[in-house]
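During the second year of the project, the team shifted from modelling isolated chains to modelling whole assemblies. The rationale, set out in the original proposal, was that interfaces cannot be judged from single-chain predictions alone. As a representative example for this report, we include one of the complexes processed in the last quarter. Its constituent sequences, exactly as entered into the pipeline, are reproduced here:
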Amino acid sequence: MLEQLLIFTRGGLILWTYKELANALRGSPIDALIRSCLLEDRSALTSFQYDAPGCSYTLKWSFHNDLGLVFVAVYRKILHLLYVDELLEKVKSEFSPLFNPSKADYPDFDDTFRQLLLEAEARAEELRQANQAKSFNADGARRNASGDKRGSKSSSGLLQDGAKGDEDGGKNSKKEYISRSVESAPHHANGSTSPFNGNGSAHAGDPKVSLSSGSDEENGSTKVTEVAFNVDKLKKLKSKGGKKGASKAPLPAKDDKANKKVKVNRVWDDAPNKKLDYSNPSSNDAKETPIGDQGKSLMDAEDDDDSDLEMEEDIEVNNSKEKEIPKKKGWFSSLIQSVAGKAIIEEDDLAPALKSLRERLLVKNVAQEITDELSSSVATSLVGKKMASLTRISTTVLKAMEEALTRILTPKRSIDILRDVHTAKEQGRPYVVVFCGVNGVGKSTNLAKVAYWLMQHNVSVMMAACDTFRSGAVEQLRTHANRLQISLFQRGYEKDPAFVAKEAIREATLSKIDVVLVDTAGRMQDNEPLMRALAKLVHINNPDLVLFVGEALVGNDGVDQLMKFNQKLIDLSTSSIPRRIDGILLTKFDTVDDKVGAALSMVYKSGAPIMFLGCGQTYTDLKKLNVKSIIKSLLS
Amino acid sequence: MVSSAWKQEAELKLQNIAKDFGLPISVELYTSIAVLLITLFIFVIVARFAFKKRKSDTILLTGLSGSGKTALFYQLRDGTIHKGSVTSMEANVDRFILHSDSIKQGRTKPVRMVDFPGHMKLRAKLDEFLIQAGGIIFLVDAADFMPNVRSVAEYLYDILSKALIVKYKIPVLIVANKMDKVTAHSIDFIRKQLEKEIDKLCVTRTGISDADMTSEVLIRKEGEPFKFTHCLNKVTVTEASVTTAQLADVYQFIREQIGS
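Output from the structure prediction step:
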């Protein structure tokens, strides 16, 4: 069952929620979705998992880029609701014409949505039946019976909902549509017998919500509504003794969308005849059952057993049909459009611009998968938007990409190490930084640079030589320590680095030193024993900052390194709250010229900010990341 | 033929005028003078625009995510917070007459309100809106204050130390929101905590390189702990509750800015 469905603007105002699903969500899954997914340019994903204490949710969403609307559906993770994507799309297409920027209340949409939800659920039910029917192909009778049973069950459920909705509708009608209902009163003189009376009168005069209204099937109102059409069809089905064949009744122009999706039901030689007839012939009320069987028959699944797959395919077919309609236009009309600025951006229009942008990013040494994810995320944010006048599509795409990159590279929280050092000092303990990374990326060199920078800000520093593996590592650090006139803590080689670090921290606490910089041995990300040792070091000493030192020179491998370090720290940790990489130190930045892609790749994949840039051989060559200049070189 | 005759005539007349004033006779000279005058005129106009005294009816709503900016925006515009709000992804911008003013009759000016999202990732765009701002309302969640005090102070410091804000003396109203909640801190406490945190920031906020520091100004008086009164612009701390519409000080602030 659907937990919640929300419609809100990109500005953050909730326009509509499904009130009948009033069960409060645990935690705040919507805010979590926006903060950790949509704002991080991962909207190319299809769903988002949120784990609240007690239960976990799956969230799916859809954008209306032109109007700036977001549609989010929340449901329990354990339920695999197949109809959610379809429902979201339907809700989107129904809600968009109603949207008015100065209006924030849409009570009318309740009925429309209830209808859409029922339709979607019915379709999902059909789909399941169809699949079951296939699996029991030999046993016709059993299948038939079960189908009928399920059908009647769902129809009774629908009826209850319908009656509930009816009350709401009635209230509305009294307030807002008095004059309307007076006008349309003659149309349902016998309305009292129809449970949809209130509902019908509420909307009989309002073409916008015609989808939701359903009455008048006996007195032949001028308003032919979708539901009325369905009821007609049901009656026909009944009268023909369950013979199949969808009738294409003329529908009003408003219902065009629904009309398009009406598909002739396939007649199977051995299919259960009454499958789509959910109404219970013994009950009179069944006439009004608003079962939306105007959707495509999902029985087309002749070769497919997998319902998931089948559903996806169907949606894809649907999408591609819609895409095909706007095709290439002449250069003159495109010129006019570019001047008038009315063109709505299609996915096909974006393809060439995105392709060139992707190539440009690849040349700048951005990892392949990240380029792909980014460009599809940019595409989702642009499709459906109106283009501003006198702009080319490539400029629009470039601008969107620039914004996305700015968002990615801007750190989530502020990085002010000096502030953190002061906090630690107040608590009477040293601030511990662990440097880790693969071999030869410049851990020790940049550790010395960081020490130099800290000393300039009147912070006392101690180095801890925990690289007890490589010959000369301690001596290298000692050279730096002597040159910078700072203390070095070392216990020689062949010792457990975790305990060396622990002793160093104890020593620093005793001698009131503010910062301990822990140098570790370089290790390849796939070297399990060494990674285990690192996890142990991190776990035992619980440093304030775990810095990953990475080269700016690497391309795809840099991402792999970072992700594996991060993953190993989590996997091999023995505590319940695992540590991850807190920040990145990117070295050899002066050697890459404008190929700064590694910076983007690492930040995008790990979410950790770049805290320092090493850009030279001397102690002063340590910089802050300048987001603007990085983006400039990425997109130049 | 006609034009040359006309030209001759004009030249003759000019010569006569020049003679009267005792000036040298040359058409080129007069043209050049005319051109000079026009250029000067344009320059004056441009200069007027450029150095005009800053007057803006834009009020910028800022603060951390979840402090109630979007709610305040709609409370001011529509007099209700509708069905609540979720984390904003984009700024809400609208020009409107305050809801409380639109009910009572009389001459009221509209205000342009910008509700800027509080999420860190979007902070880069803040500068665009700061340029337009005539006044800034900085919202603080008084109920959930202590866990976030550092990030609040950092954000506030970023705004207060912007060269632009100091130069044009843009007034800042710090609003402790959600005072209706039982767990809310008092505004004296909030002010003291913020001043303390900003004081620390003044010491530590010296970046790795000085490249980014050009747009920031030191706001602390030497040798004294930081106080909001040290700022050259007007910084006031007040309390409010958006959901229960206790916004007297906010209304007052906005009216002062738009001058109605």
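The longest strand of chain B covers residues 135-141. The interface with chain A takes residues 65-66, 70, 74, 78, 82-92, 115, 117, 119-125, 150-151, 154, 200-201, 203-209, 211-212 of chain B (CB under 8 Å).
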